Recover the amino acids of this structure.
C-alpha cells in the first residue's frame, strides 16, 4: 500500500525515533509532527467537495507534507498540545484551541480507524478503567475483584471481605504529578479496613482484592504479536506492589511465553476496543493465573525493548508499513 | 467484532475475526482465530497450556459462540487528546487529613534523580530523529547507548512524571 506513515508525537519522544528509523531504513515515507506544530509551523488545507465523501488536501510541515488522500497509517503516540502565537491572550488561545481541536483534529479523525495505531477515540475509550475491566472479563481475562465507590462503609466492608490476601487502593488516572512544589507519584498501595477514612467520600476510589503475585508481567501487544516480559525486583530490594517503584535499570527483565488462553483473550480485548497497540500489566498468581491490572493503550515500550532486545520497534513498523484500508 | 456508535459500545463474540500470520520473535507460526471462547473458571485447576513466545501471534481458543456484551453510556468525542508540553509545578498545599481525598493521601515524593534528563537531546526535524548534542549522532545509531527511560510523561501507564522537554 502506497502513501505516507504519519507519526504524531512530541519532538523529544526518543521511543518514536526507533520506529521512524526503522521505517526510514525500509524507505517507507514518514511524516512526523507534533500537535504543538499546529498552527504556527504546520499548515492545514482541507477541502470537501460535492460528490466526494472524504477530505482532500494536505498538511504542510517544516520539511514534509501529508497528502490527506494517501495516508498509509497513523501512529498516534504521545503528542503535546497545540501551541498558539504567544501574543494571544488566554481567551484568544482558548478559542483557537477549540477551533483547532474540531477543525484540525476533526479532519484527522475522519481517517479510518483501521489505519490508526491507535485511533485516539478508540484509545480514549480503552483508557477508561471500568470499561477495560468489564471488557477484559468479557474477553476471557481474569480481573481481581474490584470496588469503585465513594462510600467509606462499602470500602471498609470490601477490605474486610478480602482481608485474607488483602486489598489495594490504586488511582484510576494516576497521580497529580506535583504538589506543594515537588513531584509526586501515586502507586498501588495496600489498605486495610481500619485505614479507610471518611475521605473516600471525596471522589471515586478504586479498591481491588490483592492477588498473591508470583511475578509481574508487562505485555506489549502490537497487532497480533505479543511480547511478554517478566519483571522481578532487583536482588535484595524490598518487595513492593508496583514494579515502577524500583529504579528502571535495576529491574530484572526476562522475556517469557504467554499462555495460549491469555493470548487469545488479550486479542479479543484489543478487537473489542478497536485498538492495535497496548501495553497491559499483569500479575501472575500460582505460576499460571494471569490477572490483568491495566490495559495501557498508549503505554511505554522503549525501555522494555532496550532491556530485552525484543523487536517491538520492528513490529510497530510492520503494522504501520502494512497499513489497512 | 467491535462496534463504536456514538461513544463506547462493544460486542464480543459475534464471530471469528482473523489475524494475519506474521513472523514472530522466536520463529514463525501460523494462527487463525476461532469463535469467542467461554469465560474461564478462575477456580479451575486446569493447567494453562504453554503458548506463543514473545513476539509470536497466538492461537485463539476454539470454544462456543457465547456472546458477551458490555455497553456503556455514550461519551463525547475527544478528537485529539494530548499531554502538556511541560507540567507546571503545583504549589498547592495539601488539605487537612480530614478533608484530603483518601487516595491522594497515598502520594509519595519523586526525587529529581528519578527523572531522566534528556536536555542533551535535540530534535532534528529534517531527519525526524533526536540527536545527541554531545556526539552529534542520532540516538538510534548503532552503538549509541539508548537511554530509553520513560522520560516523557507516563500518563498512559497510570503514572505521570514531569517532562524534561
Amino acid at each position: 500500500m502506497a502513501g505516507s506513515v504519519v507519526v504524531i508525537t512530541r519532538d523529544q519522544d526518543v521511543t518514536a525515533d526507533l520506529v521512524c528509523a526503522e521505517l526510514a531504513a525500509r524507505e517507507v515515507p514518514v511524516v512526523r509532527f507534533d500537535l504543538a506544530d499546529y498552527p504556527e509551523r504546520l499548515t492545514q488545507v482541507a477541502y470537501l467537495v460535492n460528490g466526494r465523501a472524504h477530505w482532500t488536501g494536505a498538511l504542510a510541515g517544516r520539511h514534509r507534507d501529508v497528502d490527506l488522500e494517501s495516508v498509509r497509517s497513523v501512529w498516534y503516540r504521545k503528542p503535546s498540545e497545540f501551541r498558539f502565537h504567544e501574543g494571544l491572550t488566554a481567551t484568544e488561545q482558548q478559542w483557537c484551541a477549540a477551533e483547532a481541536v474540531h477543525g484540525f483534529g476533526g479532519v484527522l479523525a475522519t481517517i479510518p480507524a483501521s489505519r490508526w495505531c491507535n485511533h485516539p477515540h478508540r484509545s480514549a475509550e480503552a483508557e477508561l478503567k471500568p470499561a477495560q475491566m468489564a471488557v477484559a472479563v468479557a474477553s476471557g481475562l481474569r480481573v481481581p475483584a474490584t470496588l469503585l465507590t465513594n462510600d467509606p462503609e462499602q470500602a471498609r466492608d470490601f477490605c474486610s471481605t478480602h482481608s485474607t490476601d488483602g486489598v489495594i487502593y490504586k488511582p484510576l488516572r494516576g497521580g497529580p504529578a506535583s504538589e506543594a512544589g515537588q513531584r509526586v507519584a501515586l502507586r498501588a498501595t495496600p489498605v486495610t479496613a481500619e485505614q479507610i477514612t471518611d475521605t473516600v467520600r471525596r471522589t471515586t476510589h478504586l479498591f481491588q482484592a490483592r492477588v498473591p503475585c508470583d511475578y509481574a508481567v508487562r505485555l506489549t501487544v502490537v497487532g497480533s504479536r505479543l511480547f511478554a516480559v517478566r519483571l522481578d525486583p532487583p536482588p535484595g530490594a524490598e518487595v513492593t506492589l508496583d514494579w515502577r517503584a524500583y529504579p528502571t535499570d535495576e529491574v530484572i527483565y526476562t522475556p517469557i511465553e504467554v499462555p495460549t488462553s491469555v493470548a487469545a483473550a488479550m486479542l479479543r480485548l484489543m478487537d473489542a476496543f478497536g485498538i492495535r497497540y497496548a501495553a497491559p500489566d499483569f500479575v501472575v498468581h500460582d505460576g499460571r493465573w494471569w490477572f490483568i491490572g491495566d490495559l495501557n493503550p498508549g503505554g511505554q515500550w522503549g525501555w522494555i525493548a532496550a532491556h530485552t532486545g525484543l523487536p517491538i520497534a520492528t513490529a510497530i513498523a510492520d503494522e504501520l508499513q502494512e497499513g489497512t484500508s | 467484532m467491535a462496534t463504536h456508535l456514538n461513544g463506547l459500545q462493544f460486542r464480543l463474540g459475534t464471530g471469528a475475526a482473523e489475524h494475519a500470520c506474521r513472523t514472530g520473535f522466536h520463529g514463525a507460526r501460523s494462527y487463525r482465530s476461532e469463535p469467542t471462547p467461554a469465560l474461564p473458571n478462575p477456580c479451575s485447576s486446569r493447567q494453562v497450556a504453554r503458548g506463543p513466545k514473545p513476539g509470536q501471534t497466538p492461537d485463539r481458543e476454539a470454544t462456543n459462540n457465547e456472546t458477551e456484551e458490555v455497553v456503556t453510556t455514550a461519551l463525547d468525542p475527544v478528537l485529539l487528546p494530548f499531554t502538556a508540553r511541560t507540567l507546571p509545578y503545583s504549589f498547592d498545599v495539601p488539605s487537612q487529613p480530614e478533608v484530603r481525598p483518601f487516595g491522594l493521601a497515598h502520594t509519595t515524593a519523586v526525587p529529581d534523580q528519578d527523572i531522566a534528563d534528556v536536555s542533551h537531546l535535540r530534535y532534528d526535524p529534517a531527519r525526524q530523529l533526536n540527536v545527541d548534542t554531545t556526539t552529534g549522532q542520532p540516538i538510534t545509531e548503532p552503538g549509541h547507548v539508548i537511554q530509553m527511560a520513560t522520560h516523557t510523561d507516563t500518563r498512559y501507564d497510570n503514572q505521570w512524571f514531569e517532562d524534561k522537554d
In short: Helices of chain A lie at 14-25, 90-109, 120-126, 129-139, 152-161, 260-273, 302-308, 312-322.
